Structures are given as structure tokens and as C-alpha cells.
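Narrative of activities, Objective 1.

The group set out to show that a structural description can be obtained from nothing but a protein's sequence at a throughput compatible with the screening campaign. Below is one input-output pair from the validation batch, recorded exactly as produced.
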Amino acid sequence: MTPTLVRQHLSHAGPTPRVDLWARARDWSEIQERMLVPLYEAVYERLEVGSGTRLLGLGCGSGLALLMAATRGAAITGVEPSSPERLTLARQRLLPEPWGARARAGTRLMDGSPRDAADAETPAYSLVTAFEPIGCLAGDSEGLGELLQGAKPLAERGAPVVLAGWGPPERCTTSSVLRVATKLADPLRSAGSWRPALRDDLEEVAQRSGLRPDGSGRVACPFGYADVESAVRGLLSTGLFDAAISATDPAQVDKELTEALHPYQRPDGTVWMPNVFRYLIARVP
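Output recorded for this entry:
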């Protein structure tokens, strides 16, 4: 398949890099997405997600978090506004024909904004999740705020809204690797560059969106890979290095990312990076 042209909303003089978005989405689904499973499990356990839950997943990606909620009996709706490739993979996981899977009751997946998930026959949602971690890219909370504004009218009064973010840099081994993105993208001096997570990132987004913070937690989410090549593919699939790719080129980013991963490679060739992620539970007023 011919790689798809990715255009960054950044000002730079060099050519726009070409990235195969389908390969990127598959790497996210097959390698990287599972790293956040402990986060999903901790949230679902704390909020007692089950057969009475009507869940709206914002930025649902390739659908692993939704699948885990569905196995608990929840009725799930996923909205993916930015990656039709990931959404296609979510449909393969969760919806019936043409992939031959049995339909899961109450499952809806859609491209667009939360408002596209609204209709007169759908009851209000009892839980809203935004599991795509923020607090790592400059300006990454702006898009989340728009999603939350669209989701609030669809949720019950008092319904929990879960936001996720990177933990403190000193608790996230991956932070040292992500600094490669800062070093390479720094000449752009614009949104999209990596920055350390801040303590109140999640609370600020919730308050700007008119939500009431009501508890938080931290979860260990180690990043483990079979080898350095898998680690590079998985990390690139997050999109955190896109500004660096725009500023330089994919080969340069691959080279420096590979070098940055060497300290975390074990004698058997696997790569292991302990991390802590944080989640905030906020309430719809």
C-alpha cells in the first residue's frame, strides 16, 4: 500500500514526511496499545464497570479499552476523530461482518465528534473515558477539551469522566527516550513538541471543560518490547515523534530513538521501561 502523506500543522521549511498510516495504526494496535492495559483495568475496577454501564470512549483508537469494557458487560460507544485507520481496526475487533465476528450488543463506533454519538433513542451515558494520555506534547490538551465539551451534554448528571495523563518524569523511564523528540523538534518551537508532564495537567483540562474533579490515581504501566525494533515501531505509533520527523526525517528519528533505547535493552534483547500513568475522575455537573 502506498504510504499516506501526513501533513503536520507546523511551520517548517523542509519537505513533509511520508508515513504509512496503516502500518502506524497496526503498530499501535499490535505493539503499543496493550501497554496501557493496567490503566484501563484500574479504572474499570474502581468504577465497577459492568452490565449497567453505558460507556462513551473519546479517542477510542483501535478499541482495546472498549473491548475490555464490553467483556465486563458494558454497552460501548467509541468516537475516534483523528485516525480512521485505528477506527477500522476497532471495527474489526468489535463489530460483525465483513470480518465475521459476532456483534456485541450495544456497540457503536464512529468517526467524528461526540455529537455524532447522540440520537433520540440512546440513553445518556453513565461513564465517559478519554484514555489517550495527555501532558506530553505542547498543546495536546486543546483537542481533548473540545471532545469533552461535546460529550458533556450526552452524559448523565454526576457521571464520571476519566482523563489520563503521563506521570511525573522521574517516575517514567520513557521520558528520557521521549526527549529525543524535543531535541530533534526544538527548532520548530511550536505545538507538537514533547514536554514533561505537569502535576495539574488533568485538573486544568477538567476545570476548563466545566467538570468537577472527584478523585485520582496512579497506575504502573511498564513498556515492554520483544526487541529494539519493536520498541521503535511502538513508540513511533504514538505520534509523539511526529514533530521530530517533520523537523528532520524518519531515518534520523529512527537512528536516535534506537540509540536512546539501548540503556533499557536487557541481555536477552528485550526492552523494558517502567512508567507510571495518572488518571483523574471528574464529574459532570
